[in-house]
Amino acid sequence: MSPNPQGTVLDDPCAVPVDPPADPPEGWCHSLGRGVPGVLLLHAARARAGTGAWETVHRWAAAATATPIQEAGGGLFAGAAAVAYALAHANHPGYTAALRILDSHITAVAADRVRAAHDRIDRSELPALAEFDLISGLTGISCYLLHRDPHGEPVRAVLHYLVRLTHPVRPHGLGSAVPGWWTPHDLTDQPSPAMPGGHANLGIAHGITGPLALLATAHRRGVTVPGQTDAIDRICRWLDTWQQSSSTTAWWPGHITADEHRTGRARQDGPARPSWCYGTPGIARALQLAALALDDHARRRTAEDALYGCVTDTRQVAQLTDPSICHGRAGLVLAVNRAAADAATDALAAQLPRLRSRAITRPITDRPPRGRCQPGLLDGATGTALTCDTGLHQGLPEAPWPWDACLLMPG
């Protein structure tokens, strides 16, 4: 396969492999975030661009489907939906039969999970993050359904549920109403005495900005259900409540605890690292998408100004210590790239060359904390390489949707 057009990521000894491993770790074949389906996305993109071979794509597709897939899986990023996302993105006629089978499982699982979620709401119980979030929950499954069958009943059923999720509730023990996405769990989605009363999560990976981006994206594509506009507005107004200000721009905490909810004050004293998963890039992009859906010029300006302030604040950017999408520089580049395309001014676009250069030239020297580089989409070389390639292949054959639709960035 030809080297990365930008010249560094795939020259790294820990670069994306051309051949699947003969004995992959458990779960790796069906993990979009860290395993085979994510690597398949990169090889498919490069095959379409003429810098890779379809034979390589087929080897990875075979690896993804070689062992039984747990259709219930973990939402979009593990199991049937993860494999289906990668195969459907490849857009090759040889995968049609496999996709037909996978889609039938995914729609059945989506229906079961929607029913369970409505039953939980009817019991006046609070949700786990994995019920609704992007990585493991119904937002991620709906992301696949929205792009695969945008006007089908399965995606509308999830949108109905997400609308209901946004209504406030009054759970026992918290003393006041909280948003419907309040979870009794900690950040690992487990009950914990370290976080009594649970929390409300703002991150795009596990929090409410994932559903916000999904609802807004569907709205912009003409896929709507009753109450959807009000649901978008409710989430945005709640985010307004927790918007913080600094000397340069707005920012948001990654989560709100029960104590912070009672006092109305966030304890986080400054912006955290500007990561896709929990930081300003993911939150601001979701708010921009919402503003575009609602034609809200003031909110759009706030979101774009927040992202601009983030990328021009050297102290914030210095907190990014790896090249990955989830926690690192690639995620920042990706969010800015997508937001700049929709922005009212050229200010964000003007920052992209500097951000791209930083993301591309430093991966070789960086290593993850455990000392071993992984090829994964979220935390490894695949995501970094895909981000570096984004925008380089203008005019070449397009996939049915952008590869980063699974991250809710394109809108």
TrEMBL record:
<feature type="region of interest" description="Disordered">
    <location>
        <begin position="1"/>
        <end position="21"/>
    </location>
</feature>
<dbReference type="InterPro" id="IPR007822">
    <property type="entry name" value="LANC-like"/>
</dbReference>
<dbReference type="InterPro" id="IPR033889">
    <property type="entry name" value="LanC"/>
</dbReference>
<protein>
    <submittedName>
        <fullName>Lanthionine synthetase C family protein</fullName>
    </submittedName>
</protein>
<dbReference type="Pfam" id="PF05147">
    <property type="entry name" value="LANC_like"/>
</dbReference>
